[in-house]
Amino acid sequence: MEWVTGLLPGWLVEWMRVYVVPFLKIQVRVMARALLTGMTDTLLFLSLPITISLGSQSIWNARYELTLTQQAQIERWASVAQLIAYRENVPPVVPLVLWYKENSLGEENPNNCEGIMGLYTAVSTGELPCFPPGPQTPWEIIRQLQLGTHVFKTYCPEITYTTTDPKLIKKCYLYYNAGPRSRMNPDASAYVMNGYDALHQNMVLTDVQGRQHRLTALGAWPVHLAIQAQLAQRSEPIAAPILLAPAMLLQELLDKIWTLQEGLHKREDSAIPPGIESTAAALTTPATCRAPVVQDCFIAPHTDGDMALRPAGSPLFVAPTKRGELMCGLFPGIDLIPDKASLVVAPMPGQLIRYTDGNGNLTIQIENDEWIVWIIGLRSYTAAEGAVTTGVAIGAVSGAGSYKPGVHYAVYDKVNAGFVDALSFIPADMCPPTD
After folding, report:
1. C or N: which end of the chain has fewer Cβ atoms within 10 Å?
2. What is the mean pLDDT of residues 104-119?
3. Helices 94-103 and 138-155: crossing angle, nearest 10°?
4. Are 114 and 133 in contact (CB under 8 A)?
5. How many CA atoms, within 13 angstroms, populate the side-chain half-sphere of residue 434?
6. Contacts (Cβ under 8 Å, ≥6 apart) of 414
7. In which band, very low, low, confident or very high, does the pLDDT at 214 lie, cut at 50, 70 and 90?
């Protein structure tokens, strides 16, 4: 640089040394600091929403009963499984449940010769040849699904395509795992019940060879319910999971605040206390929307029993303005839609269990000794799993015209073993208008 300054007049070099160079040094530091700050802010601006999305998606995914891969397999094979189930005369989701239990819905045969359906007895007795390990074609998967479903039916011939009795379904899953001569209580079977609730966690399974395993995977019965919930509300997601998850968590937070404002987070059960139902029930049973309809897949509900356990309230905090017709299907029941956003409340006391699929479809099941109710189609949960009382807010819907307008409500009578007319349990003052 000296040869450059040598060409300049001395006074100009001195002026630059005194005035220009210090200025440039200061500005370089300022510009470098500004550039570094700008880069940091830009990185934060870009990474913060991504971090929030991924973090909230991870939180939401932890609520799923089945992984996203397993849910995709269920969507892919649901129609085939239903045809197999119809042919073998077993409930529609049974082939998928057996496949999940034996091979996690994987399409590769394991190394134990039992195939994707765990056909140990048939292989060990020579009835069927060894299933070679490795990936299988779709046609081979269909064949094995049918083989396993056929064995399930032969072990439990009393089950049918329309069976909804939980006791019978649990017993049949037990027979498939432990053999048709098993006298074990299905509720004590790890294969059947593991992961169902807090009392059925990490249960010990003894296999047909006498080996014991402590399970972490879901049992057949909670998988049965989870698959039912997914297939009952199949729809396209409104957004990718990376965007859907944080939005749903934010909505849940807002709905929980709404629950607190309404005072429905610890509401006491208003039903008749156990033990005094015999006389009081006849005098205090509230008027309902209508007498129970008995048709197709709906039976007459039992009228005795403990009135404190009966579904005596509406699942919606505000009266619905629209309703569908009674419909059969995986969860025979009725659609209820309010005109505006509404909290969803427990219509009876019992143990609450939640089922959520990868598209953000939310389902709640509440069960007590006499009844089971399913409430499908919520936009958010506001209650944790566990014991709930009548009237406690358990979720929310968005009202007519929105993506999650209302709920599908189904009531199962455990005493008479069948679904009943859900509208006949809703109080008269909460009835939707007739068309």
Report:
1. N
2. 94
3. 110
4. no
5. 3
6. 166, 167, 369, 370, 371, 372
7. confident
| Whether the model pTM is above 0.70 | yes
Quick: pLDDT tens for 72-101.
999 999 999 999 999 999 999 999 999 999
Q: Are 177 and 148 in contact (CB under 8 A)?
A: no
Per the listing, tokens 């008995």 go with 294
- Tell me the per-residue pLDDT of 322-365, one tens digit each, with 9 for 90 and over: 999 999 888 899 999 999 999 999 999 999 999 887 666 889 99
Chain segment 279-304, per-residue pLDDT in tens:
344 345 679 999 999 998 899 999 99
Burial (Cβ within 10 Å: 0-12, 13-18, ≥19) of residue 143: middle
Q: Are 146 and 88 in contact, with CB atoms under 8 Å apart?
A: yes
- Give the tens place of pLDDT for each residue, 10-62: 666 666 665 555 555 545 555 556 556 656 655 555 555 555 555 565 655 66
Q: Are strands 322-323 and 334-337 parallel, antiparallel or unpaired?
A: antiparallel
Cα–Cα separations (whole angstroms), residue 338 to 242, 313, 323: 29, 15, 9
Distance in angstroms (rounded) separating the CA atoms of residues 167 and 277: 26
The vertex-282 CA angle with 388 and 285, nearest 5°, equals 45
Delineate the domains of the chain, giving CATH numbers in brackets.
Answer: 68-226 (1.10.530), 236-430 (2.70.70.10)
How many Cβ atoms are within 10 Å of 26's Cβ, its own excluded?
10
